[in-house]
Amino acid sequence: MAHGGGAALRQGLPVTNTALLGHHRAMQLAPTLAWLVDAAQDCSGADRLLAELGAHLVGDGVPLAAGALTLDVPHPLIAKRTWLWRAESGEVIEALGFAPGGLAPDPPNDAGRRWLRDIAGGEVHEDAVGRSDGPLLGWIGPRPFTADEIERLRQAARFAATPLAVLAGRATLRATLDAYLGKRSAERVLAAPLRRDLGETIQAALLYADLRNFTILSEATPPAQVIAALDAWFDRIAGAVHAFGGEVLKFIGDGVLAIFPVLEASPRRACDAALRAAGAAEAGMAYLNAERRAQGLPPLAFGAALHLGEMLWGNIGAANRLDFTAIGPAVNLASRLEGLCKQLGRTVLVSGALAAETDMPLIALGSHSLRGIAMPCEVFALAKAEAPTS
């Protein structure tokens, strides 16, 4: 019986019910299994794999009302992603499980199971795919599944392990690059060969900022408190940048380099976004410093400069060790302009090039020479921000 019912039929021998049942199951699942082997790994993401797998199973006669797929995610804020599929509409929605210290309280790990029960009630069939702590597939039907249907779902889960591993690998790479490079830079790195002679000239509004007197603070403060202060500062400045569509390119010690790429014929939208981000960061730091004073901690002062210009955006570095960043005269000017903040007693300074592209209210501070920059720079400041209320 090693070859099952097919061999027995060819030899004219009696066939057991078990062999026939196994042969029947294989025939029924052939379209789904063939798709899982041949095409599933080409899905654009786990959400599409879940929807197409569900549709294939329904086509094979498995009664499904809904399905759920949960994957672990290597992300600073998100621990798990769960996709929820409805058979009736084909719609897929997503639920996030946040990591400890993320943006929201950690939800239970059975979000997919609870959602499936809410849809149709009854018992949910689940399979751990690949490994015990790996992807989890869950299904529910309009009625309890039969033993034959459960076996077909289990077999489909086993065949789904490989395409899910491929998709999970892609997601891990993308999430890692997003976390360390930023979304736009990650897309650029993934789309181009890993060579240092590749880059493009882009126009962008730049934001360069760093903390004041941080060296003194770090020498007089325990390391854990220094890291906490840095994280709080980066949360405010990077959070403001991202909120207005910018991207942090670099954390440089206690400094930040961010860009707001010009994506339209006029740079006005990018410039306005950079100005709003700087204002939001200033307000956020004011509230943070109010909290620090209440805790008996010294406030954190910072300076920031905004400029509009062109830069080379791409790979630089050694032959076998690359960095993806922005370089050029515009970056240098933004850095030098930030160094003028303390001298002028301002938190945020704006170059004349950026000021010329916005109607937002600014205060003219005259023309100033910048170290290492040939031409004097017209300098502006943000209108006075309101003090935080307690």
- Strand percentage lies at 25-35%
Estimated radius of gyration: 29 Å
Mean pLDDT over all positions: 83
Could you say which structural class the secondary elements and strand pairing correspond to? alpha+beta
What is the approximate shape? elongated
Residue share in helices?
Answer: 40-55%
State the total count of DSSP E strands. Answer: 13
Q: What CATH first level of the largest domain would be assigned?
A: Alpha Beta
Distance between the termini: 80 Å
- How many distinct folded domains? 2
Order of helices and strands: HHHEEEHEEHHEHHEEHEEHHEHEE
Oligomer: single chain
Main beta sheet: strand number and arrangement?
8 strands, mixed
Low-pLDDT regions: 1-29, 386-390
* CATH architecture term of the largest domain: 2-Layer Sandwich
The name CATH uses for the topology of the largest domain is Alpha-Beta Plaits
Count of separate DSSP helical elements: 12
Summarize the topology.
Elements: H1 4-10, H2 17-38, H3 46-59, E1 66-72, E2 78-86, E3 92-98, H4 111-120, E4 125-128, E5 136-140, H5 147-181, H6 183-191, E6 199-211, H7 214-219, H8 223-243, E7 247-252, E8 255-261, H9 268-294, E9 302-318, E10 321-327, H10 329-338, H11 341-344, E11 348-351, H12 352-355, E12 362-368, E13 377-382
Parallel strand pairs: 9-11
Antiparallel strand pairs: 1-2, 1-5, 2-3, 4-5, 6-8, 6-9, 7-8, 9-10, 11-13, 12-13
